[in-house]
Amino acid sequence: MAAEEAAPTKQEIPVDECHRLLAGQEIGRLAVNAEHHRWSSP
Amino acid sequence: MNYAMDRTTVVIRTAPRTKLTAADHADVTFEVDEIDRRTRSGWSVLVRAVAEEVGPEHRADIVARTEATGVTPWAPGEHGRWLRLIPTSVTGRRIVPGELPPAVDPRAYLRAAATGAGRSGLRRRDTATPARQTTPPATASAGGTSSSSSHDSRTTSGGTR
Fold first, then answer.
1. Which chain B residues touch A23 with a CB distance below 8 Å?
2. Which pTM value belongs to this model?
3. What is the value of ipTM here, to two decimals?
4. Residue pairs spanning A and B at CB distance below 8 A
5. Under a CB-based contact definition with an 8 Å cutoff, are residues A15 and B90 in contact?
6. Whole domain around residue B56: which residue ranges?
Protein backbone atom coordinates (compact mmCIF):
# COMPACT_ATOMS: atom_id res chain seq x y z
CA MET A 1 0.00 0.00 0.00
CA ALA A 2 1.52 3.32 -1.00
CA ALA A 3 2.17 5.97 1.63
CA GLU A 4 -0.62 8.46 1.68
CA GLU A 5 0.16 12.09 1.08
CA ALA A 6 -1.52 14.39 3.57
CA ALA A 7 -3.07 17.51 2.09
CA PRO A 8 -1.60 20.92 2.88
CA THR A 9 -3.49 23.04 5.34
CA LYS A 10 -4.11 26.73 5.69
CA GLN A 11 -3.71 28.25 9.12
CA GLU A 12 -4.26 31.61 10.69
CA ILE A 13 -1.13 33.05 12.26
CA PRO A 14 -1.56 34.50 15.75
CA VAL A 15 -0.85 38.20 16.06
CA ASP A 16 2.22 37.80 18.24
CA GLU A 17 3.74 35.46 15.71
CA CYS A 18 2.86 37.93 12.95
CA HIS A 19 4.97 40.51 14.75
CA ARG A 20 7.78 38.02 15.13
CA LEU A 21 7.67 37.23 11.41
CA LEU A 22 7.62 40.94 10.54
CA ALA A 23 10.66 41.49 12.72
CA GLY A 24 12.52 38.74 10.90
CA GLN A 25 12.15 40.17 7.42
CA GLU A 26 13.42 43.26 5.62
CA ILE A 27 11.31 43.60 2.50
CA GLY A 28 7.61 44.28 2.19
CA ARG A 29 5.06 45.72 -0.20
CA LEU A 30 3.19 48.88 0.56
CA ALA A 31 -0.17 49.88 -0.84
CA VAL A 32 -1.53 53.36 -0.27
CA ASN A 33 -4.96 54.83 -0.68
CA ALA A 34 -4.31 58.55 -0.50
CA GLU A 35 -6.11 61.53 -1.99
CA HIS A 36 -8.29 59.22 -4.06
CA HIS A 37 -5.23 57.67 -5.64
CA ARG A 38 -4.23 54.11 -5.13
CA TRP A 39 -0.58 53.27 -5.31
CA SER A 40 1.50 50.26 -4.42
CA SER A 41 5.21 49.83 -4.09
CA PRO A 42 6.95 47.37 -6.39
CA MET B 1 10.70 48.26 -0.06
CA ASN B 2 12.89 47.61 2.91
CA TYR B 3 11.71 48.39 6.39
CA ALA B 4 12.40 47.93 10.06
CA MET B 5 10.21 47.50 13.09
CA ASP B 6 9.90 49.79 16.07
CA ARG B 7 8.02 47.50 18.41
CA THR B 8 4.81 46.92 16.45
CA THR B 9 5.23 49.90 14.13
CA VAL B 10 6.66 49.54 10.64
CA VAL B 11 9.28 52.15 9.77
CA ILE B 12 10.19 53.00 6.18
CA ARG B 13 12.00 55.85 4.50
CA THR B 14 11.12 57.79 1.43
CA ALA B 15 12.15 60.79 -0.58
CA PRO B 16 10.44 64.17 -0.41
CA ARG B 17 7.82 64.95 -3.04
CA THR B 18 7.04 61.37 -3.85
CA LYS B 19 3.78 59.52 -3.86
CA LEU B 20 4.73 58.05 -0.57
CA THR B 21 4.88 61.40 1.17
CA ALA B 22 1.29 61.90 0.05
CA ALA B 23 0.52 58.87 2.17
CA ASP B 24 0.88 60.89 5.35
CA HIS B 25 -2.22 60.18 7.47
CA ALA B 26 -3.50 57.84 4.76
CA ASP B 27 -4.70 54.31 5.16
CA VAL B 28 -2.08 51.89 3.96
CA THR B 29 -1.53 48.19 3.85
CA PHE B 30 1.85 46.59 4.19
CA GLU B 31 2.43 42.98 3.23
CA VAL B 32 5.36 40.70 3.98
CA ASP B 33 5.63 37.10 2.90
CA GLU B 34 7.91 34.17 2.44
CA ILE B 35 7.45 31.09 0.29
CA ASP B 36 9.14 27.74 -0.11
CA ARG B 37 8.73 26.55 -3.67
CA ARG B 38 10.04 23.09 -2.84
CA THR B 39 7.38 22.33 -0.24
CA ARG B 40 4.80 24.63 -1.87
CA SER B 41 4.24 26.34 1.43
CA GLY B 42 4.64 29.80 2.86
CA TRP B 43 3.13 32.57 4.90
CA SER B 44 2.03 36.15 4.53
CA VAL B 45 1.36 38.87 7.04
CA LEU B 46 -0.80 41.85 6.24
CA VAL B 47 -0.59 45.05 8.27
CA ARG B 48 -3.38 47.57 7.92
CA ALA B 49 -2.09 50.86 9.18
CA VAL B 50 -2.20 54.61 9.19
CA ALA B 51 0.91 56.22 7.76
CA GLU B 52 2.46 59.05 9.64
CA GLU B 53 5.43 61.07 8.55
CA VAL B 54 7.81 61.72 11.38
CA GLY B 55 8.45 65.41 11.90
CA PRO B 56 9.18 68.04 14.47
CA GLU B 57 5.69 67.76 15.88
CA HIS B 58 6.49 64.29 17.15
CA ARG B 59 7.85 63.63 20.58
CA ALA B 60 11.60 63.38 20.75
CA ASP B 61 11.54 59.79 21.89
CA ILE B 62 9.40 58.78 18.90
CA VAL B 63 11.83 60.48 16.55
CA ALA B 64 14.76 58.88 18.30
CA ARG B 65 13.22 55.43 18.22
CA THR B 66 12.31 55.82 14.57
CA GLU B 67 15.81 56.84 13.56
CA ALA B 68 17.30 54.16 15.78
CA THR B 69 15.76 51.50 13.57
CA GLY B 70 18.51 52.46 11.14
CA VAL B 71 16.49 51.81 8.01
CA THR B 72 18.67 52.54 5.02
CA PRO B 73 16.86 52.27 1.71
CA TRP B 74 18.30 49.84 -0.78
CA ALA B 75 17.10 51.95 -3.67
CA PRO B 76 19.37 54.83 -4.68
CA GLY B 77 18.41 58.46 -4.28
CA GLU B 78 17.41 60.80 -1.54
CA HIS B 79 15.41 59.24 1.27
CA GLY B 80 15.26 61.87 3.96
CA ARG B 81 11.71 61.28 5.15
CA TRP B 82 10.70 58.79 7.77
CA LEU B 83 7.31 57.17 7.70
CA ARG B 84 5.78 55.20 10.52
CA LEU B 85 3.01 52.77 9.69
CA ILE B 86 0.93 52.55 12.84
CA PRO B 87 -1.00 49.29 12.68
CA THR B 88 -4.73 49.14 13.09
CA SER B 89 -4.79 45.40 12.46
CA VAL B 90 -2.29 42.64 11.80
CA THR B 91 -3.33 39.35 10.27
CA GLY B 92 -1.42 36.42 8.89
CA ARG B 93 -1.99 33.20 7.01
CA ARG B 94 0.22 30.21 6.54
CA ILE B 95 0.08 27.25 4.20
CA VAL B 96 1.51 24.25 5.97
CA PRO B 97 2.74 21.54 3.62
CA GLY B 98 1.16 18.16 3.78
CA GLU B 99 3.19 15.17 4.82
CA LEU B 100 5.11 14.13 1.75
CA PRO B 101 5.74 10.45 1.05
CA PRO B 102 9.34 9.32 1.52
CA ALA B 103 11.55 9.74 -1.51
CA VAL B 104 12.17 5.99 -1.54
CA ASP B 105 9.61 3.68 -0.06
CA PRO B 106 11.65 1.37 2.20
CA ARG B 107 9.13 -1.39 1.68
CA ALA B 108 10.14 -1.59 -1.94
CA TYR B 109 13.64 -2.61 -0.87
CA LEU B 110 12.39 -5.03 1.74
CA ARG B 111 10.04 -6.67 -0.71
CA ALA B 112 12.84 -7.14 -3.22
CA ALA B 113 15.11 -8.67 -0.59
CA ALA B 114 12.44 -11.07 0.64
CA THR B 115 11.83 -12.41 -2.82
CA GLY B 116 15.49 -13.12 -3.44
CA ALA B 117 16.21 -10.02 -5.45
CA GLY B 118 18.61 -8.85 -2.76
CA ARG B 119 22.32 -9.26 -3.39
CA SER B 120 23.22 -11.34 -0.35
CA GLY B 121 21.79 -13.95 1.96
CA LEU B 122 22.63 -11.73 4.90
CA ARG B 123 20.24 -9.08 3.69
CA ARG B 124 17.63 -11.68 2.95
CA ARG B 125 17.86 -12.96 6.52
CA ASP B 126 17.81 -9.45 7.99
CA THR B 127 14.68 -8.57 6.16
CA ALA B 128 12.76 -11.71 6.91
CA THR B 129 10.75 -10.17 9.71
CA PRO B 130 10.13 -6.77 8.15
CA ALA B 131 9.09 -8.48 4.95
CA ARG B 132 6.17 -9.99 6.78
CA GLN B 133 5.20 -6.54 7.92
CA THR B 134 4.97 -5.36 4.37
CA THR B 135 2.08 -7.65 3.73
CA PRO B 136 -0.97 -5.56 4.37
CA PRO B 137 -3.58 -7.06 6.65
CA ALA B 138 -6.44 -8.58 4.76
CA THR B 139 -8.75 -6.08 6.37
CA ALA B 140 -6.64 -2.98 5.72
CA SER B 141 -8.44 -1.92 2.60
CA ALA B 142 -11.68 -3.66 3.20
CA GLY B 143 -13.44 -0.69 4.66
CA GLY B 144 -14.20 0.61 8.10
CA THR B 145 -16.03 -2.30 9.61
CA SER B 146 -13.47 -5.03 9.24
CA SER B 147 -10.55 -2.74 9.91
CA SER B 148 -12.00 -1.25 13.03
CA SER B 149 -13.01 -4.62 14.43
CA SER B 150 -9.43 -5.81 13.97
CA HIS B 151 -8.21 -2.75 15.83
CA ASP B 152 -10.79 -3.26 18.53
CA SER B 153 -9.75 -6.83 19.12
CA ARG B 154 -6.14 -5.78 19.59
CA THR B 155 -7.16 -3.03 21.94
CA THR B 156 -9.34 -5.31 23.95
CA SER B 157 -6.78 -8.06 24.33
CA GLY B 158 -4.04 -5.60 25.22
CA GLY B 159 -6.15 -3.46 27.46
CA THR B 160 -7.74 -6.07 29.72
CA ARG B 161 -7.55 -4.96 33.30
1. 5
2. 0.63
3. 0.83
4. 122
5. yes
6. 4-95
